[in-house]
């Protein structure tokens, strides 16, 4: 079996080596000539001005996409299509705002310092650890600025009306699979209002895309994960008995599944 698997892998590598245009024939992850495809994205990412390739594609444009592309074309003409790393960095600083500028400060309104699950932890060290975990909700909450809704075409983030809890670190937006587990933790922490807001966000995204992308950025719009919205909704309804919420959205759940 291992020999056969190795043979298949070798054959695939040979096929890819023989046809270097395979990647070029794949469709872009989204139509954006800034965040998903095109020479601007290629030049900026190949310049490696950031340690993380995600940094640039999470930035907000200061100007419209047409104006941003015009400034980029001027740069390319001025440098004879060979801008230096410093020139690319100056261009990005001139035309984009730092990653994360789409959010405003937000602390969950329904956060509880001592949720009931802590009372069931007998070991004092584990109870203290659980209390510290519960504190993390306050640092992982994100709320989008109203400008994201108004000027959504200047962002890579997908606008949602309610605040979310994100995985953290470089992942500033929601992620579908992660949210399944996050919602389970929020329910344990009795943060039902936050959970309902996140579920409402997902329902609006299904209305928009017909499914929920892997994450909350337009460059994730061509990929998804297993349909977890129904299990999320079940966890919420089991905990709150908010049957009306599921009744009013059952058609969207069916559409997503």
Features:
257 residues; three-stranded antiparallel β-sheet; two-stranded antiparallel sheet
What does this structure look like?
- With 257 residues, this protein is mainly alpha-helical.
- The chain folds into two domains: 30-97; 103-256, no CATH class.
- Helix content is 54%, strand content 5%.
- It contains twelve helices and five strands.
- It has helices at 2-18, 22-25, 39-47, 54-57, 65-78, 85-95, 124-140, 146-150, 176-188, 192-209, 229-240, 243-256, and strands at 60-61, 96-97, 103-104, 141-144, 164-165.
- The strands form two sheets. It has a three-stranded antiparallel β-sheet. A two-stranded antiparallel ribbon has the order 1-2.
- The longest helix has 18 residues, at 192-209.
- 27% of the residues are buried.
- The model has no long low-confidence stretch (mean pLDDT 91).
Largest sheet: 3 strands, antiparallel
Spatial sequence of strands, sheet with the most strands: 3-4-5
Mean pLDDT: 91
Tell me the radius of gyration: 22 Å
What is the terminal separation in angstroms?
35 Å
| Helix vs. strand class | mainly alpha
Strand content: under 5%
What's the topology here?
Blueprint: H1 2-18, H2 22-25, H3 39-47, H4 54-57, E1 60-61, H5 65-78, H6 85-95, E2 96-97, E3 103-104, H7 124-140, E4 141-144, H8 146-150, E5 164-165, H9 176-188, H10 192-209, H11 229-240, H12 243-256
Antiparallel strand pairs: 1-2, 3-4, 4-5
Helix pairs in contact: 5-6, 9-11, 10-11, 11-12
Enzyme class: hydrolase
Family: Belongs to the glycosyl hydrolase 37 family.
Pfam family, one: Trehalase
In short:
This protein has 257 residues and is mainly α.
